[in-house]
Amino acid sequence: MNIAIIDDLSECREEIRNSLQRFFSKHYEEEPLSIMEYSSGEEFLSGFQKETFDLIFIDQYMKGISGIETGKRIRQSDDLVPLVFITTSRDHAIESYQGKASGYLLKPFSYINFEAAMMMLDIARLKNARSICVQDEKILLREILWCDIEGHYVQIHTPHIGILRYRIPFCTVADKLLEYPQFLTCYKG
């Protein structure tokens, strides 16, 4: 799971990271966890691309643009990624949910409150919504049974759509899928 933490205070980023590691080791220990940290909304947005993250934590009060503004800019390109606001004030809760927030947690928070917020996110649902993009076509990971090559075409076998064919190198698809533990290369050549 790829998670971003946007907070200008390193100790707050550390607290969120530690809570995430504790949560995933307790509830989803098989899930690989990648956490990226950013000290401002501008730093995060400078390299942000749609579908890069499965979950984003945002502080409201930061130097530069606010957390709400950062969330609005994220929504301009990615309408689905869950956003969780972690901040010291209740003042922006309604505004955050207008930006399709998935959670709002007040600092300082206990692990119990953090865990409850994470449980409401339904991590299993987030995992099922993961996808790869092949030639501008989004394919849900849960729909991919296997991939192979026929002639110069990569074939992606799915139970509901059938066989998707792309004239691209096999490594283009394999490299995307091998990031996830449910896929492996069973032969080469």
How does this model look, in words?
The protein has 189 residues and is of the alpha/beta class. Helices cover 35% and strands 25% of the residues. The chain has 7 helices and 10 strands. The chain has helices at residues 10-27, 41-47, 67-77, 93-98, 111-121, 123-128, 170-177, and strands at 2-6, 34-38, 55-58, 83-87, 103-106, 131-134, 137-140, 146-150, 153-158, 162-166. The strands form 3 sheets. A 5-stranded parallel sheet has the order 2-1-3-4-5, with helices on both faces. The protein has a 3-stranded antiparallel sheet with strand order 8-9-10, with helices on one face. Strand 6 and strand 7 (137-140) form a beta hairpin. The longest helix has 18 residues, at 10-27. The protein is elongated, with a radius of gyration of 19 Å. The protein starts with a strand and ends in a 12-residue tail after the last helix. The relative contact order is 0.12. The model has no long low-confidence stretch (mean pLDDT 88).
Question: Can you tag this structure with a few keywords?
Answer:
189 residues; 7 helices; 5-stranded parallel sheet; 3-stranded antiparallel sheet; alpha/beta; 35% helix
Put simply, the count of helices is 7
Instruction: Report the sheet with the most strands, covering strand number, pairing sense and barrel closure.
Output: 5 strands, parallel
| Distance from first to last alpha carbon | 30 Å
Order of helices and strands: EHEHEHEHEHHEEEEEH
Residue share in helices?
A: 25-40%
Q: Care to count the β-strands?
A: 10
Quickly give the structural class. Answer: alpha/beta
Globally, the shape reads elongated
Poorly predicted spans: none
Tell me which oligomeric state these chains represent. single chain
Biggest sheet strand order reads: 2-1-3-4-5
Radius of gyration: 19 Å
**Kindly state the mean pLDDT as a whole number?**
88
Strand content: 15-25%
